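Q: You know discrete backbone vocabularies at least as well as I do. I have my own habits and do not want them to colour yours. No explanation is needed for now; the record alone will do.
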Amino acid sequence: MRGLSQCTDLFDGVAPLLRARPVIDEYCRLGGDWSVLKEKTPCGVAWFHIVTRGQCIIDQVGHGPLTIKAGDILLLPRGDTNVVRSANPSNSSTAEFCVDVPNAIRLVDRSLGTEETELICGRLEFEVPDNPLLAILPALIVMGTGRNTIDRIGMLLETIVEELDQGRLAGALIATELASVLFLMLLRLHLEESPPMEGLVALLAEPVTARAIKVLMTDLTRAWTLDELACEAGTSRATLVRSFRRLSGQTPLAFANDLRLDLAKTRLTHTRDSIAAIAADVGYQSEQSFSRAIFRRFGIRPGALRTVDRGN
């Protein structure tokens, strides 16, 4: 198992892939029955929601409802369509949304009674939109700031809220810069606590192997040859094989096959996409061959894997 210092060193290598410019769209104070729809974003743009007071529910395509509460930071790395709504809907309220735009940020106000929710909503625009690390991150990341391990993230969040609340000169700019640091810390913490497939972070931290991984991720359905991967990585076959073996213990083509199946498993357990569609997207021409490959890798058939996950 990797130590914390080693994981942090690897993160330094992949940090450029996670650099992003946050755009705070809305600061919302909401009460009663409400919902906010966020449509699918372009490639390389993620949605985020930060709950600063109360609680609410997020509905995401392919997933069930999830309750998030004050102190939770929610990130959708691939910018999937989602709906954020009131936790306790009531048909008794007919109040309209009041919208102001101080400091270029929409202030959405629908305050009713004492049961209110406050949200910061916005987008992360990644500097490298087509990078492979985004593809292997979960479709939804939720982290709470109530734990001692992330006190600094909680302090950053409090400062962001203060800047937005006070409406002072350059408050929105300062809040945005702080949000940039907050999300880099959040993603680092996620990688430290739940690293992706074994060896992937190490491969992304080295330029030669990172180029090969990026090429693989651009076309998972292609039957890449070792010569093609070496050419795209700007190195020789022998050097590419040595680098992959040293960092992951596998040859490039064996790693590519495992990467396809790991990404397929993520889609099987986190989406409602058909098995046939997932198989085709990772390069398998039939469900039968895909099922055999999944069984060899994980010891379970695709349909059973999906059933087990939904039963947990």
Remarks:
- Residues 19-193 form a domain with the Jelly Rolls fold (CATH 2.60.120.280).
